[in-house]
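Q: What does the assembled structure look like for these inputs?
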Amino acid sequence: MPEQDTKKTISFSRQVPEGDGRERDVCLNCGFVNYENPKIVVGSVAFWGDRILMCRRAIDPRRGHWTLPAGYLELQETPEAGAVREAQEEAGARIEIDALLAIYTIPRISQVQLIYRAHLGDDRIAPGPESLEVGLFTFDRIPWDDLAFPSARWALHHFAQSRALHGFPPFTNPPGETGNLEVGGL
Amino acid sequence: MPEQDTKKTISFSRQVPEGDGRERDVCLNCGFVNYENPKIVVGSVAFWGDRILMCRRAIDPRRGHWTLPAGYLELQETPEAGAVREAQEEAGARIEIDALLAIYTIPRISQVQLIYRAHLGDDRIAPGPESLEVGLFTFDRIPWDDLAFPSARWALHHFAQSRALHGFPPFTNPPGETGNLEVGGL
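A:
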């Protein structure tokens, strides 16, 4: 393909489009409005017996810290399919979705997280390119002092609270918590 | 501000970024990856006694048809706040969120819809710029033959099923339904 076919030139200006109430990037050539909106993160608390699947991050932010398999939902993907894909990509795991465990909002970074409760089909796991290592932890052996994000801690505790529940409303952010990383710990 | 300060020139190429598995728009100048991901629609089934708030659309798609107050979640906004804002903007309504009624996925257009059950603080409503008219309908008087979207129909039926429920898991797409508009009706 000739190089010019793979390039496009766009000139944007910050404007409030007609009928809108907020500034957006508007193309000065064609009027296209580049709406930016929050992104959806999908993930899971996946268990095998009394152990929970976790991944140690190989990428920033929070490289080297532990979290749940989770990532951005892709175009044309259902949230459930996205959570299954992330567990496969990050931990080589085959999971089956059981319930929507939680919906968390991290307004500062405009993320909405849909975290599912899931069970592992077997205990064969292996780190994918974005994980340094993966592990199955009983609740008291979770690396609590080395978690990557507040929402991972929330989800683990909400999972524990949900163990006896069927047909429950999804948990949300703990009262007053925004999901921001705090200096001095989570 | 001089005009050149409000313009930027970007040249994108479709590439698979390192460590990624999908083609993205990558800036040929700086390597910026323009990830495109599904968008979140937030809305509500808001009731006043035995009547439900609906809006007749003043904009495409489906101008002239009836739907629930709903729209795109904005940056730095929680889903609950977005649903409250949309009811205000589209119907001049003051609502209080009661529960997460449903999560629907429309994969074709990469939308995840978070629909809340809410009650109106009073029955003063008025069409906003995106509504031709607004109304409060008992269930049997809903303009069923003139609904804008399949997901509005789903939400109304799920709302009816939820009336006696407290602390329930959110409903999801009816089995086999994708949310696509079908020729010949919803």
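Chain A has one domain: 39-183.
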